[in-house]
Amino acid sequence: MNLHFHQLIKGTGILSLAGIMEKGVAFILLPLYTRYLTPADYGAVELFLILLAIMDIVVSQGMDSAVMKRILYDKGGQPIEAYRPAISTGITYVLCCSLMAGTLMILFSGRIAPLLFDQSGYTKLLAFGAGILLCQATYKVMAAPLRAAQKYATVAGISFIIFCAKLAGNLICLLYLDAGFASLIYGSFCGGVVSVIATVFFARKYLAWGFDRDE
């Protein structure tokens, strides 16, 4: 009982810290944003990120939790090879859903951009938004086996890498490239790309590519 309680506290603490790091870039850079961005700029970006968060729920459909359930309860105790088809199927499914949603976002960017940014000159940002959506959705599923295997330190390490990537992307785009409010989107895109690369590296022994209709 003490062992389970210790694992619970350890896992909760590390994963909570990982979540704080993933979301902490905006909080840390808030004084910088208030200096370089207008309230309207910041509001437009936040509205865009909220849209991406909603779309992420739609395209992910809880697949990361479903993969974890498959590993821990349906195939618990079996070797990695036993649940690789479930992981690959989840990744492929989410990847296809993200590609479809991202394609629609790009196709209708001319109509969506004026609603979000109050002008039509930022349609290219919708393409970066599609990339963010794709990376976020696939990252969560690919990280599921790490969480199921209680690789908490690895998950926290990946979150720290994502944090640094977002922070560096935001600072470079805002201070050196003078990208304005778009720097927040570019930074999120950098973090998304790095999250996929880092997760593939650390979770590579759990991953396989394919689609199993039975799964």
Helix content: over 70%
**Main sheet attributes: strand count, strand direction, barrel closure:** none
What's the helix count? 9
User: Taking all residues together, what is the mean pLDDT?
Assistant: 82
Oligomer: single chain
Order of helices and strands: HHHHHHHHH
Descriptive account of the structure:
- By secondary structure, the protein is mostly helical.
- Helices cover 82% and strands 0% of the residues.
- It has helices spanning 2-28, 30-36, 39-60, 63-74, 80-107, 109-117, 124-148, 152-176, 182-202.
- The radius of gyration is 19 Å and the shape is globular.
SSE blueprint:
Blueprint: H1 2-28, H2 30-36, H3 39-60, H4 63-74, H5 80-107, H6 109-117, H7 124-148, H8 152-176, H9 182-202
Question: Care to give the gist of this entry?
Answer:
82% of the residues lie in helices and 0% in strands. It is mainly α and 215 residues long.
Give me some keywords for this one.
single chain; 215 residues; mainly alpha; 9 helices; globular
